[in-house]
Fold Si:zfos-2330d3.7.
Amino acid sequence: RDTVLHSVTLFVAVLVLAASVRVDSQSFLPIDCDDVYRHDNTSSSGVYIIYPGGPTTPLHVYCDMDTNGGRWTVFQRRMDGTENFYRPWKHYKTGFGNVAGEYWLGLENIFLLTMRKKNELQVDMEDWAGGKASAQYSSFSIDSENAGYRLHFGSFTGGAAGEDYRVALGRLALKVKRWMDG
């Protein structure tokens, strides 16, 4: 598993419906890409605005409406190395990059996305030689900053990356803890 990945995309999809943010009878503020799809019956992937933190906190995200049935809120996308991912802790907390290209959505935003609904995790990877692998997990959530942004994964449900990818996700959790500990 020494293959260097040039493309990693992490997705979160909603498994259980919950109420979207409604400001009044006329306004609809989607919390995630599943809400975008259900409200607009949108079938094209692209950048959309969601409101996981409520009506005063719009967030631009990339919605993948194609992979495994779509409705995926993409929280990390790396494709060609145009975005520097060697960054200080505060950037991983708040997010960085351009959602139309390479980006990290931010731990706080991912927490807001996963706190209201049960989510599924899809990880897609591609190496420089064009080899592709994926892994799917039955659930995914992240705790608040006060709880150390602890990552929670459900059972492995499929994908060519296999169950071993959980080890890499565990390393990510340890890295987050080390950053927070200083």
Q: What stands out?
A: The chain has four helices and ten strands. The first strand starts at residue 5 and ends at 14. The chain has one domain: 7-181.
